[in-house]
Amino acid sequence: MKLSYWEYKTWLSNIDYTIVGSGIVGLNSALFLKARFPNAKILILEKGVLPQGASTKNAGFSCFGSISEVLMDLETHSEEEVVELVTKRFKGIQLLRDTLGDANIGFQKLGGNELFLKKHKALFEKCAASISRTNKMLMPVFGKAVFKLTPNTFGFEGSNQQLITHSEEGQIDTGLMMDSMLTAVRNRGITILNSVEVQGFEEVGDNVAVKTNHFEFKTNKLLIATNGFASRLLNEKVKPARAQVLITKPIQNLAIKGTFHFDEGYYYFRNIDGRILFGGGRNLAFETEETDSFGQTKRIQNELEELLQRVILPNTPFEIERRWSGIMGIGDQKKPIVKQLSNHVYCGVRLGGMGIAIGSSVSKELANLV
Questions:
Q1: Which contacts (CB < 8 Å, 24+ apart) does range 138-147 have?
Q2: Could you give the 3-state DSSP secondary structure of residue 223?
Q3: Distance of alpha carbon 321 from alpha carbon 192, whole angstroms
Q4: Residue 159 carries which DSSP code?
Q5: Which candidate in 137, 191, 192, 197 could, as Cys together with 47 as Cys, close a disulfide (CB 3.0–4.6 Å)?
Q6: Residue-wise DSSP of 82-108
Q7: Facing residues of 323 across strands?
């Protein structure tokens, strides 16, 4: 596409910082850069009509890790590393809330609950026996004991009659959060160009030459915040992971409140607008779901519906209104990749399905590298 003089002059000349990706990390990085450099010209490029990946497609959990996840992490990480992971999530949520305000993200602290299917009796017993130890380990993070046994008062069937609840977890309205973030970015004079896919880049002297599907231009610094799609542009160890989600039509007198996990976090659900949002099942087909292509599979969708009917809403009629998927960026380690790649190129990727919790802190760290 040939740009006019006006188009190039207005939007693509004298760019100080170009950010690839308008998700949580990309938008927040722009805000933190603008706070550091008020006069900088900042451009955000987004390949989708709306933000792609997981930022507008997640379940809206403000979570720090269920107790089974914490115990699982302790098998591959040191205690110090696990505490560091949880700390980063906790501080990241606080930073998100401070940046946008609770009302602008729909934040509600209703608690996070882990339920255990009857076939996972051994896991429940292991987790219940570890509550005291885990609370002690995480006391420096939360300043209180956060995990406790609570009764299953929600009518879940096929599961243990006790839940393990995290008192500090909550939920947000993902659409409201992203809309608030987009508004904040535009109000600060930062340009976002949608439907522009970066196909490659090359450092040329003191600039970076960027090639897109529509045009080419130069920028002083390039920040890559594409998370699950990072392998298309970078050689970093980031694997895409698709998460499939569905939501019901409104259910009259829905009593379920809060966020819920089971099967070591591979399944998750919550209430929203009188509905149940339910996602997961990636563990049924890891190879199939290691993709950066959006879509659903019959196997996982059928499993979600069956669990919804058999466990979550056993005595409540429901209808599915919508299905979708999001693309996460994961790796062998849960630590995100935030680093300088060359003189003028930086990245903040591999958020491991914790974009809401750590996206703000990762973006601040990325912006501070520049």
A1: 138/70, 138/83, 138/86, 140/83, 140/87, 141/64, 141/83, 141/86, 141/87, 141/90, 142/90, 142/168, 147/67
A2: strand
A3: 31
A4: B
A5: 197
A6: HHHHHHHHHHHHHHHHHHH-GGGTT-B
A7: 246
Decide: 270 and 295 in contact? Cβ < 8 Å: no
């990085």: which residue's tokens? Answer: 29
Q: How many helices (H) and strands (E) does the chain have?
A: 10, 18
DSSP, residue by residue, 320-338: EEEEEEEEEEE-SSSS-EE
Which long-range contacts link 92-95 to residues 24+ away (Cβ below 8 Å)?
92/354, 92/357, 92/358, 92/359, 92/360, 92/361, 92/362, 93/62, 93/64, 93/356, 93/357, 93/360, 95/360, 95/361, 95/364
In whole angstroms, give the CA distance from residue 227 to residue 195.
17
d(CA 49, CA 223): 20
Taking only the tens place, the pLDDT of each residue in 167-217 is 999 999 999 999 999 999 999 999 999 999 999 999 999 999 999 999 999
Main-chain phi, psi angles of 113, to 5 degrees: -125, 140
Give the pLDDT score at 333. Answer: 80
> Residue 358 has which token pair?
């750590």
In the predicted model, what is the mean pLDDT of residues 143-149?
A: 98
- Mean model confidence pLDDT for the chain: 96
Q: What is the dihedral of CA 292, 200, 216, 186, to 10 degrees?
A: 50
Q: Do residues 368 and 31 lie in contact, with contact meaning Cβ atoms separated by under 8 Å?
A: no
| DSSP state string for 248-282 | EPP-TT----SEEEETTTTEEEEEETTEEEEEE-G
Q: Is 326 exposed, middle or buried (0-12, 13-18, 19+ CB in 10 A)?
A: buried
| Model confidence, pTM | 0.94
